[in-house]
Amino acid sequence: FLWWKIIFHFIKFKMRQFVLFFPLLALVVISLAGTATVEAATGLNPPVKLVWHYYKVTNTCDDAETYIRHQVEMFYRNDSSIAPKLLRLLYSDCMVNGCDASVLLQGPNSERTAPQNRGLGGFVIIDKIKKVLETRCPGVVSCADILNLATRDAVHMAGAPSYPVFTGRRDGGVLNADAVDLPSPSISVEESLAYFKSKGLDVLDMTTLLGAHSMGKTHCSHIVNRLYNFKNTGKPDPTMNTTLVSELRTRCPPRTKKGQTDPLVYLNPDSGSSNRFSNSYYSRVLSHNAVLGVDQQLIYNDDSLEITQEFDASFEDFRKSFALAMSRMGSINVLTGKAGEIRRDCRVTNANYGA
């Protein structure tokens, strides 16, 4: 693996300083009993302080990560789709109000009821893990940390690197559905980059995290405009491979009737039901075979195009960058110390527990 390629991108795109990646790039010199400051990109204020193996270091739940991994392994053996489901769930949590597990809260107008979150999955897995941990270490392990750790373990089983997850997050309160600002999957690359930058992330993070679309599914309603009436032209998106258009039209009929079904299609037909984490997503983008419009848009920005070409050429480059990007996303606006709470049930705040 050629680290100079990643360093080159850090410099060329004026990204974060090397110290921002220290927790991941210099793990060999970090004491397992110490702490590490995990800072997001410039603009995230204040920097957050999370701890490597927090529950072991604080002697509050020494085997918390082992319990979580064991539960994920059991779920994954029965259903590999938990990897993309947990990835999307974590993204939907962190990118809205920071990684505070607010997306896990239930309610008639909660985050998970927002239109952008339709079809979210993985809740049952997190709830099960929380129940296990509550029997062993009551009131100690946050739902936010469980979601981050479980996602890491699931995507590792699917082929991603087992990257370090710094812990010590606490859980946030209820957010209304109208607070969810997740963008449409049909936005331009400029709009996508602006959104990621608003969260303190950059073009490398964006291009890397969109690579999570190497597995999972999406609803036809998210792509039907590309298939039949792109920008009200009455024609398909001219950037989409015509063979892919024909294939997807057989699964996604025009949406002409109220209440008609909304089938699911694979984001990456190359991986399909195997749900394997790979870099084939990037080759599909380069050959105009991306399913979502936002993915295809990566070739229309010089920086994201160059990164896409690099990741297509080197799976290892993508895997290493994925580890960095997931760590940075996982540190967005986290609650630590005495902020927030440690929920007893991930579905409700402690004030409503047992109500």
Automatic annotation (TrEMBL):
Gene3D superfamilies cross-referenced by the UniProt entry: 1.10.520.10, Peroxidase, domain 2
Catalytic activity annotation: 2 a phenolic donor + H2O2 = 2 a phenolic radical donor + 2 H2O
CDD domains: secretory_peroxidase
Entry GO CC: extracellular region
Disulfide-linked positions: 61-137, 94-99, 143-346, 220-252
Residues that hold Ca(2+) 1 according to the record: 93, 96, 98, 100, 102, 111
Cofactor(s) required for function per UniProt: heme b; Ca(2+)
Occurrences of domain Plant heme peroxidase family profile (ranges): 49-350
Site (Transition state stabilizer): 88
Record text on cofactor binding: Binds 1 heme b (iron(II)-protoporphyrin IX) group per subunit.
Subcellular location: Secreted
Binding locations of substrate: 183
SUPFAM superfamilies: Heme-dependent peroxidases (SSF48113)
Any one GO molecular function term: lactoperoxidase activity
Sites where the protein binds Ca(2+) 2: 270
Gene Ontology terms: biological process: hydrogen peroxide catabolic process; response to oxidative stress
Alphabetized Pfam families for the sequence: peroxidase
Positions of heme b binding: 213
Main location: secreted
Main function: Removal of H(2)O(2), oxidation of toxic reductants, biosynthesis and degradation of lignin, suberization, auxin catabolism, response to environmental stresses such as wounding, pathogen attack and oxidative stress.
Family: Belongs to the peroxidase family. Classical plant (class III) peroxidase subfamily.
Protein's name in the database: Peroxidase
